[in-house]
Every structure is written in C-alpha cells, then in structure tokens.
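P.,

For your records, the input lines for the assembly:
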Amino acid sequence: MTEALARTIDHQRARFPEGLALDSGAVIAPLAVAYRTYGRLNAQRSNAIVVCHALTGDQYVAEPHPVTGKPGWWEAVVGPGRPVDTDRFFVICANVLGGCMGSSGPAEPMPDGSRPWATDFPSITIRDMVRAQKLLVEHLGIGRLLAVVGGSMGGMQVLEWAATYPEMVVAAAPIACAAYHSAQNIAFHEVGRAAIHGDPDWVGGRYWQDGRIPAKGLSVARMVAHITYLSEAALGRKFGRRLRGASALTFLEDVFEVESYLRHQGSTFVRRFDANSYLTITRAMDYFDLAAEHGGEVANAFRGTSTRFLVASFSSDWLFPTEESRALVRALNAAAANTSFVEIATDKGHDAFLLDEPVFHRALGGFLRGAAERVGV
Amino acid sequence: MTEALARTIDHQRARFPEGLALDSGAVIAPLAVAYRTYGRLNAQRSNAIVVCHALTGDQYVAEPHPVTGKPGWWEAVVGPGRPVDTDRFFVICANVLGGCMGSSGPAEPMPDGSRPWATDFPSITIRDMVRAQKLLVEHLGIGRLLAVVGGSMGGMQVLEWAATYPEMVVAAAPIACAAYHSAQNIAFHEVGRAAIHGDPDWVGGRYWQDGRIPAKGLSVARMVAHITYLSEAALGRKFGRRLRGASALTFLEDVFEVESYLRHQGSTFVRRFDANSYLTITRAMDYFDLAAEHGGEVANAFRGTSTRFLVASFSSDWLFPTEESRALVRALNAAAANTSFVEIATDKGHDAFLLDEPVFHRALGGFLRGAAERVGV
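Structure tokens returned:
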C-alpha cells in the first residue's frame, strides 16, 4: 500500500546526495526530504516559518491530503489570515525523516534501489529530523527562520531547532509538548509497537515483499494512541455511553459508538501510514530528552539564546500535561530566554492544538506578528 | 493452557443444576461457582463478608495463587489482623461468572461436555455475576452478609449487591470504582479486544481446538490495561526514562525499562488468563451503568436502603477518578443512605487499592468493625 502510494504520488522533494550523519552514527545517503511550501518568500528572505508535524502528520499542512482528500491537518492555524498567515509568511513543512510521505524512511527504497529500507532503516532521533529540515531550509536559500512552530512531536522538533541552531531561529513556538517523553508515553508507544510486532502480516518488517500490510496491529496502535489524544471529557461528550443500535448483549460486535469511532480511526489510518515508519518515529519520540542531551539540564540547551519562545499547553492534555510545559518554561527562564507561556483552558485534550481554539490562535498569531515586527518583516 | 489448568487445578466449587437466568435472557445451566473461604462462620452466621474481585483477579484472595504461586491478590487487606480480619470474619470470594478459575465461563465445558463454551458463552452483566454469588452465599447457609467489599470491577459488584439485594447487605464498601463505565474506559477495553480479535491464534475464539492461545493479542490487551492501572507519577518513579542496558539506538529491542516491565506483565498474564474470559468480562464492565438500570438516576438504586456505605477513591486514579466517586456519594446522599467517603492521597494510581495504603486500610478496618458492632458480631 505504502509502496503504491510512493509510486503514485509525486511528492515535491529535495535530494541531498551527500546524505545525513545521524545521532546513531549511521549515514543516510542519499537523503530525500519531501516538503510543501505556502505563501511567498520575500526579497529579504526573512519571512520563512518552518511548521513541524506530529507523529502521524505530514507536509500537507494547508491543502487537501493527496491520499485521503481531507483538508490539511492544520488549516485552522496555517493559511491566509490564519495565525500562521500565508499572506504574510512563507511556510515550509517537511515530511519528517523516517516518515512515509516521500522523505527518506523505512518505506522508501534503499540506496541500491533493491527494496524498501523497512527495519534496516537506522534508528533516528528528533534532532536527526531537524538536521534534515535544516538541509532543506538551506537548500531553499534561507539562512534564518522567522519562526519554527509545531505541536506534540512537532513541538519536540521546535525545541531541537532552537537548541541546535539558535542563530537560525528568531522565534520558536513549542506547543503541547515537553522537554522529554515520559515513562507513561513510552509505555503507550510500546503497546502500539507490540501490536505491530505481534501482527503476523508484519512479517518481521518485510510485509512489502508480498504486498501485505500489518493492518490489524497498526490499527490497534492507532486506536490506543488516539485515546491518548483526547480527554475523558471529550470522549464522554462526543460519545458518552451511547449504544450503536439495538441494546442486545452481543459478544463480538461493537456495542458502543465510541468503539465504532475508534475502529474507524484505526482502519482509515492503516490506509495512509506505514507500519515501519510508525515504529521508527515512535522510537524517536521515546528517545527525546533535552536534558540528557545537554548535561542533565534542559536550561543548558538554551543558555545565551536570543530566540523568543511561546510555550503553549492545553489544560486537559494528559499526554503532555501543562505541568511539563511549566517545567519547560522554568528551564527557559533559567536560561534567561525571552519566554511567554499560555495555558489554554479546554476539555478537548491533546488534540486541542489541532482544533478551533481561538485563545490559542490569538496567542500564536500575536507572537508571530511580534517576531515579524522585531526583524522588520 | 486454560483447559489444562481447569483439568489440573481442583477448584472448590458449588454447583447449581437449576442454573442462572441472565440479564440477556439466556440461561446457564448447570451453573458452577468456584470459591474460597477464609476464617470461620460464627454460630449466628452473622460474620460473613463477600470480597469481590477485579477484572483479572480470582477467588485466591489471601493464599498463594495455584497457577503463579504468588501471594493472594489482596493479602494486604484480607487476613488475620488485616482490615478484613479473618480472625473475626468469615470471608467468601467467588470467581466471577465468566471468569476462568473454575466458575462457569468461556473456558469451561458446555453443558453437553463436548467443548468449551468459548464465544458461545452468553453475554453477561455485573448484576449476573452478583446473582451467581448470591446463589453461593445461600448455598453456604448465609441469609445476610455483614459486608460486601471490592475494588474496581469488584466495586461495581458491591454496588450491584447493595442495589439488588439491599436486605442482605449490612455494609458495602465500593472502592476505586464508579456507578458506570466511562467512554474512555470502554475505549481502552476496546483496544484490548481489538488486539485479541486481531490475533490469528484467537481463531474466532476457537483456539481451544488445537491448544493454541492468542498470546500476542492478550498480551497487548494486558499491557494497555496495565498502564491505566498505574499513574504517570508511579511509572515515572518506578522507571523514569531508565535504559535497559546499552544506550545504543536499536530498532526492535526494548530500550527502556518500562517496556520490559510491560512486556513481562503481558507475557505472564497470558499464562494464567483465558482470552475469551477477558472479552466476556471487559464487556460486562462496559455495560455497567447503574443509572440506566434504575430509571436514569443512580439514587433510585438505593432509595430506602439501610445498608451503610464506605466509598473510597484514590487521588491519582485516572481510570476511576475521585470525581466519579464523589458523584456516587452524591447519589447515595440523595437516596438518604448512610455514607462515608474517603479519598486517599497517593500517587500510585488505580492499583493503590491493592497496595499498602495505611489510611485506606484504617478506614476500611474501622468501617467493618463499626458494622460488626452494629449487628453484634
């Protein structure tokens, strides 16, 4: 399926024959970075904003998705007149390294073209993803970014951008994330990986050989992850205990609406996402730990920075609770970074960062306008 | 495996040839109820306490488990000198209807002895479980229970006992539970069921035919459930982000200690629990909704009751949050039931009800002593 996608969708890509050296010591060469852009780069090349996507997102931020036909995943935030205003800013979004929408990853052919990387794709880190994006930004002739913006795993990338290339980042907005992945989040990821590994159609990662996909395992992985993206209140409001149809007690069928919803989430996901990519990217998230990368203190990652930060959290997000954003803000303050923090009151859980949240949108829009004024855009 | 267990373990059972009529309309006949007792019934038959077990518990409350050899699951609470003091009280614990430790359930032979019930076992409810326990209690010659006590799904049974047989229950202690199963909890159960259904070794429930068990699916189900039994703080304290061994980036192996722990939880579970039982019992929990059974109001279930209640919750329990216990207490108050409520401050999550929590133990012990004094035990 994913191979079929790779053949039929003509993703826009930058190619880097020299490749990329990874944190693991491995080198991916050549490297491909698939991306989309929105808006126009100004003459001073000073209005570029990189948007970083989350675990199951991709580069199709603000346009219909080429596989599902659904609207872009962040059209509420990126577009003309939106907080990331494409009438004013030049927006770049790359498919992450390890992804399955055209960037180098497990579903893409190995350098010799013989077969997909599959499980031979090297382990990667969030910092590796950012290094690949930096190559793309330079390839586009841009030396400094007005801003880097992203939520969830996208927020982790924002933090790595600001920590690794501070001179390139005027403003950074890490949203609904944390400076590390918690034990509970690692545990949920491990459930998803166990479900994929346990699916006989995963075939040790070689499902590409005869066109199978580990649909059941990947679907279970998506189902459990999806629960963590919502809140108990959101699930309760959306579905409560509503029954699907008859109230008859049945052994096998879906009884409650929330079950059908989750199953649907699982089954549509497997049509657009590669299982080996899911394994690779969840692992990269699990590895993420800014403190460990910087001598045990998050603040060390940002000392001396002139980047301005907007940290945003959502009150009902239990995947990346507000307390973890507060800890991040304390570290930024300890590093004397110029930092704003906003906690958005919402009962929509982690997914709120993708939804219509006017307070969040005003905060982000104002922050980006302020950054633009600061550098004269 | 479960069949092997059923053959090799000589569970103590009561048999009811007349069977049991279920909420679904089906009848299970004959009915078997496996059980254990601790302590001695007094001459007045007034010191009996029923302990109700949780989803994956069984009747081996206060003695080594016959399969795993581990201590009984509630030895912290039930035993000589413990809050449920077996020097003073006669404790009965039955394997729930639908379970896999000797009571009628999917792993037990069908009435004609031809094969296990498997997916032909009827859908059951928490109230059906309690009806089976009532038959056992009467079989033991007991007309009134000093108390019914249980946590999690055990607490749901306590509530059904008090609602269905109020004249038989002097005191009721529903612990770490709620008057209904939330959409989020249903969703987590559905993930587990999807993992079992998706395991080819489940074979549509007929894995007993050639001695297979859906170990991978059941293990994933256990892993995701286990996360919900803990708290983020407990996982963080227990494992944090500790690596298992080398820090090398690997694709397939467990990297973090929390992963090994979860996998171990999954793999040991499948050796003692039947997958079809897991499907049956999780569904019974999902159906649980006292308000729906009583004209839309929980209070209706308890109007006119003379049962005394102790409701206990644990502050970091996110499976059955304190707020749901408070709602239960409000309903009991609206029904003018004599009700005490205690929220235990702990960061150990839902599992705290099984652990060494002195404040909880003092509250429960005092409550049971008070009930005993009230009826002259």
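Two observations worth noting. Chain B has two domains: 2-181+291-374, 185-282. Residues 1-6 of chain B have pLDDT under 50 and may be disordered.

Regards
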